[in-house]
Amino acid sequence: MTRHHPDNLSLLEYSAGNLSEPHALCIRLHLDKCSHCRSRVDAMETLGAVIMEHQPRVSLSEGMFDSIMDRVDHGPEAAKPGSASPAPAPEKRQDVLQKLLGAGLNDLPWKRQLGDVSVLDITSKFPNQPERVVLQKLAAGGKAPTHTHRGEETTLVLQGAFADHKGVFNQWDFVVLNQEDEHKPVAVGCEDCITLSILSAPVKLTGTFTRLLNPFIR
């Protein structure tokens, strides 16, 4: 069961088709598993169509956004638990990744980065994408170095789970971190934790010794 979700603005941008391809992919994979967020996107798309029909030249101000979200949550047509469109079959979610990566998650040419962490940079699969797109694998029971972020990092858990000071993030959970977040993820469970991350800037190692490696991190 997913417990960590994209925020309302990200879902609204997704429903409007305004997200970059990698960001949209993260949310699409999350939506395939999360009926709660699918319900919200369905409601947003319905309300968006009504707004465009009756007020085609009105921009989405902060007040209007709040009004839309209030209608999504409390209006008479608000989606009720279980009313969202059914999730695609699991194999379809895997097909999206298989087509993109050309192999299963555990069969990719991983490169050891530091300690228990391996990475695979897939930015080249998203032409003209200004941010870095990487897969990260944290070995089962392993720990990532303590770090913070120089920019924003959007992450989706593809396999396994990890825990940090904010809680436990399971498969298909969604998390956004920035310069205010310092953490040391630990893989929990009996399998490697694999994530898909979009980074606007390199991470910044903050450990006593690992911080010496910062000049070599891109």
Automatic annotation (TrEMBL):
Pfam families: Cupin_7 (PF12973). InterPro entries: Anti-sigma_ChrR, Anti_sigma_zinc_sf, ChrR-like_cupin_dom, RmlC-like_jellyroll, RmlC_Cupin_sf. Residues 72-92 are annotated as: Disordered. Residues 106-196 form the ChrR-like cupin domain. This is Anti-sigma factor.
